[in-house]
TrEMBL record, chains A, B:
This is GntR family transcriptional regulator. It holds the Pfam family UTRA. It comes from the Bacteria. GO terms for biological process: negative regulation of DNA-templated transcription. PANTHER family: GNTR-FAMILY TRANSCRIPTIONAL REGULATOR (PTHR44846:SF17), MANNOSYL-D-GLYCERATE TRANSPORT/METABOLISM SYSTEM REPRESSOR MNGR-RELATED (PTHR44846).
Length: 262, 262
DNA sequence: CTCGGCTTCTTGTCTAGATATCTAAAGGAG
DNA sequence: CTCCTTTAGATATCTAGACAAGAAGCCGAG
């Protein structure tokens, strides 16, 4: 067993002033980068690494925790530490809200996932009226109360995105938008039917580490950041008619945007 | 000293099956979220936490390392553990490449930073010809060699962004673009002067944890992801004339985009 | 054959230290 | 007063071990 590790890993440099656990992490990282451990492959067990490098177990665990926080590996209790496979990514095109994509009966998420050969799911649906946060309130022009639509999106059983739409009550109350299923084309189609022809969207993007709640909701592995996207939809009168707050597992997404040079 | 910690922190629940170090992390996180420790404030020292919770030092360090990987706190050797202050963010507007912003003598980065009251710097400038990576090559239409322009941007001495522009040699060789300082309006102004009128840009955004090199180059604290942006510039003939690969400290940026509803 | 228990290997959690190194403040020499 | 040394307190690194708990295979009872 230890022979396997010796073949794939180097040895420590006792003259280096780099901490031992960092050196071990460096060796493992290099081995992974060079493909000596394939995606999904199991790394040598902690006790094998202890023997190979002649260090204590805590030192080995410290090294492994570095690789975990880098998102390179993930550990599974009772099984081992594995090279994290890259999940299939969802590409968000910059024209994803174009009117022509809204004609179908199914939602954009379902259509796209089917096309990519993945099994889409939407759950956690919650629709209710509430008092907006100061941020949402400011973006929507300070309505007293808003309709909040929450849902979670999954691909092949894996949660990838968690979103909440906020709409002013004077627009959404007692309309199909306040129903769990707003019908074909989603709430944007309904907004246009209600006379709020959409003009443009503003998107605001951040990236950060997830909160414990986000880790739980999106079942995120250690070392996976989230992309936080806040989209505001404006109608042709210049009014903000919807704010959508989305938290995405960063390893599952690539966002595409088209910018005119003007 | 321990009295201070007792006032601000709760106590452990011995009946809970949640690991002790997680409970400690939860307590500290809650105290930070509720503002009981302000931005930049020093957390109780490890030994104070050891005494307060009656656990061993490794358990306390384990808890603190969780908060570090969440980007909530950062430790300073010999000083203490501090609540991480939110750095000023740079907002990238969706019209930042509009022609009208290109008229000035200074680069967009300098102008913008001056306006925000920050002290901008650009360093690490390197301009050289090289063989493109397969990815860059594919985006640029498979040129044999490209001109690479590398630079790092800093605000008030803090590195925030690291970017490399790639241009096909038949466009850039023996032009001001191959000079360290390409002149007023930057390389986009020069491209247009050379007859490559810009039509649009495509941007591709990912977020992930930084590599050790990126941590070093951007002096990133633990728990800070990076935003990886790849922009391709197209001229009016539909040719890709430049690819810009940018890695940004995620805590220093908010990206804004404008999407027409069409 | 199937099912349940046992064993073994794995990672998870926690303890109780030891030594090193960095920081900042106090104190002494000049 | 200034400068250097000392010292206390902080985090960083590492060790050696203990017990818990999950996963998986072996193997005997039925």
């Amino acid at each position: 067993m230890a022979a396997l590790a010796s073949g794939l890993l180097g040895s420590l440099d006792p003259t280096s002033d780099r901490a031992v656990f960092r050196q071990i992490a460096d060796h493992l990282r290099e081995a992974i980068d060079k493909g000596r451990f394939a995606e999904g492959a199991k790394l040598p067990s902690e006790s094998e690494l202890v023997e190979h490098f002649s260090v204590s177990r805590m030192t080995v665990r410290n090294a492994l925790s570095i690789l975990q926080s880098e998102g390179l590996v993930s550990s599974e209790h009772g099984k081992g530490v594995f090279v994290r496979p890259r999940p299939p990514v969802r590409r968000l095109a910059s024209d994803r809200f174009a009117r022509r994509h809204r004609e179908q009966g199914k939602s954009a998420f379902i259509v796209e996932a089917d096309a990519a050969g993945s099994r889409p799911e939407v759950d956690n649906l919650e629709v209710k009226e509430e008092r907006p946060s100061t941020d949402v309130s400011a973006r929507l022009g300070a309505p007293r109360r808003v309709l909040a639509r929450r849902r979670r999106y999954l691909l092949d059983g894996r949660p990838v995105e968690f979103a909440t739409s906020y709409l002013p009550l004077d627009i959404a109350r007692d309309t199909p938008i306040a129903q769990p299923n707003p019908g074909p084309g989603g709430i944007y189609a309904r907004l246009e039917e209600l006379g709020h022809t959409l003009d443009h969207f503003e998107e605001e993007i951040r990236a950060r580490m997830p909160s414990p709640l986000e880790i739980k909701t999106l079942q995120l592995a250690t070392g996976v950041p989230v992309i936080h996207l806040i989209r505001t939809a404006f109608d042709t009168k210049g009014r903000a008619v919807e704010v959508c707050d989305t938290v995405m597992a960063a390893d599952a997404y690539i966002l595409n945007y088209h910018l005119p040079a003007k």
